[in-house]
Design a protein that fits this description.
Elements lengths: L10 E7 L4 E7 L6 E4 L2 E8 L7 H4 L10 H12 L1
Parallel strand pairs: 1-4
Antiparallel strand pairs: 1-2, 3-4
Length: 82
Amino acid sequence: MKKGIHPETYRLVAFKDMSNDVVFITRSCVNTKETIEIDGVEYPVVKLEISNTSHPFYTGKMKLVDTAGRVDKFYQRYAKKK
């Protein structure tokens, strides 16, 4: 690896899956503005839309995630072509 391109200090950061409220803590150097308290300890928090606890590949459950009606718009365009 190249020297001097990686951060010297990593800190504990909480990553929160917003679809099912699962939180996991790992070391990261990501910049955050928000914090969360877990077991009396305050951590910087990064909010995720999807993680391995909610992704269909890992859970085996098909879940339709519709953001701003994109799926409906797709179905409307597809219906016009038939």
